[in-house]
Write a structure and sequence with these properties.
309 residues, DNA polymerase, domain 1, Rossmann fold, 8-stranded mixed β-sheet, 8 strands, binds S-adenosylmethionine
Length: 309
């Protein structure tokens, strides 16, 4: 904790100085600090700080910067959700991770917080690619990946256009929710809306499957109303053809400011000829984190589901 506080203090102090002196945003001040640290002009390092200490300190500095003005769709993925996603990645890939690395992609990588939370949890066992359209966010992701020494290749582009990425074993993604404005690009997708604009979150699911190996897994933080909207029939049909739903895990309502922002973890597997559909789909609700007994029951349910796979 002490390392996190010290590192955050130094980074935040620098960011506030830059914000004032250069009349810029606090978030740009954080980026300036990280890039100066990487260039060796400043040194924020703490003698025994772990990769998680560094990520958490940067996360708090970014959160503070974001509180001063950021669109809801740019919000970083909080630790609670990142750690739960990481837990499921760990469960599903447990056997493989004992003897080999996996390749992962986050096509909406933002600040990199979700991806790097998962990578730190599985330290040394993941190589990753991130895609992000926003210049400031991707630079924050690049700097955080560099200071935490995680191997991430980053591409700044619209993730719904062609990617220079080989198929991956796993996708993690906190889906951007809403309409996708480029109707010409939407036409390349099976999930293009038959009328009006297409949902970006649907197209992101299809694009993620396009870049996943057969039998690979996808871990989405998706709006809770994903299977319950006017375009969801099309999504159901598409998924039946290309993917198997492995799990839908509802998250505690208390995490979200209001009902429209509620999310679930949706785990898919890309279909493969030599594999079979799952015997059982895990449908569960994560209890309130303070309720230890209910939490233990939740993890027991996941364990039984995993054993039955
Ligand atoms: N997991 C990220 C993190 O921890 O910072 C947050 C992801 S945020 C919910 C969704 C991200 O998708 C935003 O950073 C947004 O800029 C990005 N995005 C939205 N549309 C995009 C597109 N067409 N191509 C690439 N990135 C996009």
């Amino acid at each position: 904790m002490e390392n996190i506080e010290k590192l955050f203090g130094l980074l935040n102090e620098h960011a506030e100085k830059i914000e004032k002196e250069q009349n810029t945003t606090l978030l740009e001040g954080v980026l300036d600090g990280l890039e100066a640290w990487l260039d060796g002009e400043l040194d924020f390092s703490q003698p025994d700080a772990t990769k998680e200490d560094i990520r958490k300190a940067i996360q708090i500095a970014i959160l503070k910067g974001m509180r001063k003005g950021s669109q809801p769709n740019h919000q970083m993925t909080p630790d609670t959700l990142g750690l739960l996603v990481g837990y499921f990645v760990e469960q599903i890939f447990a056997e493989r991770l004992e003897h080999e690395k996996i390749v992962m992609m986050d096509p909406a990588v933002g600040t990199g917080n979700l991806l790097l939370t998962v990578m730190n949890l599985l330290d040394g066992k993941v190589e990753a690619t991130g895609v992000e359209v926003d210049e400031l966010l991707i630079r924050l992701a690049a700097a955080t990946a560099d200071v935490t020494e995680q191997p991430v290749s980053l591409y700044r582009q619209d993730a719904l256009q062609d990617l220079l990425v080989n198929p991956v074993d796993a996708v993690v993604c906190d889906l951007p929710v809403g309409y996708y404005p480029n109707e010409d690009v939407s036409l390349n997708y099976e999930l293009c809306a038959t009328e009006g604009m297409s949902y970006a979150h649907h197209l992101f699911i299809e694009q993620s499957l396009n870049y996943t190996k057969e039998g690979g897994y996808l871990f989405f933080l998706a709006p809770s109303h994903l299977f319950d909207s006017e375009q969801s029939k099309q999504l159901h049909k598409y998924l039946q053809k290309h993917a198997w739903i492995q799990a839908i895990i509802q998250l505690p309502d208390s995490i979200f400011a209001n009902k429209t922002l509620e999310k679930s973890i949706v785990i898919l597997q890309k279909q493969a000829k030599e594999l079979k559909a799952p015997k059982e789909v895990l449908l569960a609700k994560v209890p309130n984190m303070q309720n230890k007994q209910a939490l233990a029951l939740f993890f027991e349910k996941v364990r039984l589901w995993k054993e039955g796979k």
